[in-house]
Write a structure and sequence with these properties.
Number of domains: 1
CATH superfamily: Vaccinia Virus protein VP39
Distance between the termini: 47 Å
Helix content: 25-40%
Mean pLDDT: 94
CATH architecture: 3-Layer(aba) Sandwich
Radius of gyration: 17 Å
Structural class: alpha/beta
Low-confidence stretches: none
Length: 226
């Protein structure tokens, strides 16, 4: 297992679309911050990030479904991200990138108004209350999203966890964000036009959980005007 991880770490270093800036680079100013369209993707297409992308299959599948948009997967575990990076490299996807950082540092990787949408797919629920600030929809994280998200940008959440789903709904209500859509059983009515695009793309674990009969929840919202 350790040998395989080392092999994946080494291969990550060879991918031109895989970035893993250290603290010194982030502090000094990451070179692509505020310049992802101009200096990396070479277009003006919308930029969408996936928080906690894991193996990156959701990021890669979205890039295939929406070739006119740019997708960036964010995670801290390089061995997991290797799968998505390798697949997108082999398939020569021009609209995909991966950044290995702690999620708290997204403001050091992206500039103001640089991101059009954020996907949060099956995040760690952080069930212990002292760790609520680590939840990807906590007020602390939403403040970080505000630093990089364009006005009117959309945040999507998919989760199998009731606590996390309800927690997010509470945060949206308490902070006067704009809930655009919510569904506590995403696959109950697949013909619903609001969910068709959402269920067309699934993560690896989402497929497993669906086979186990778990209920998938989904919502999307916009931030208040602050």
């Amino acid at each position: 297992m350790a040998k395989r991880k080392l092999q994946r770490f080494a291969e990550n270093e060879t991918f031109t679309h895989f970035f893993q800036p250290g603290w010194e680079e982030l502090s000094a100013g990451f070179s692509l911050r505020g310049k992802w369209n101009a200096d990396f993707f070479g277009n003006d297409n919308p930029v969408i990030i996936e928080m906690g992308c894991g193996k990156g299959e959701y990021t890669v599948d979205l890039s295939d479904k929406y070739p006119g948009r740019n997708f960036i997967g964010i995670d801290k575990k390089g061995a997991r991200m290797w799968r998505g990076a390798k697949t997108s490299s082999e398939e020569e996807r021009p609209n995909v990138a991966f950044v290995r950082i702690r999620a708290e540092n997204i403001g050091k990787v992206f500039g103001p108004d640089e991101i059009d949408e954020i996907w949060i797919t099956f995040p760690e629920p952080q069930p212990n209350s002292p760790r609520h600030s680590k939840r990807f929809t906590s007020p602390e994280f939403i403040a970080r999203y505000r630093q990089v998200l364009k006005a009117g940008g959309i945040i999507h959440l998919k989760t199998d966890n009731d606590m996390f789903y309800n927690y997010t709904l509470d945060v949206i209500k308490e902070d006067n964000h704009h809930l655009l859509y919510t569904n506590s059983d995403l696959y109950a009515n697949p013909a619903d036009p609001e969910v068709k695009d959402v269920i067309d793309v699934q993560t690896h674990y989402e497929k497993i959980w669906l086979e186990q009969g778990l209920t998938i929840k989904y919502l999307k919202f916009k931030l208040n005007e602050g």
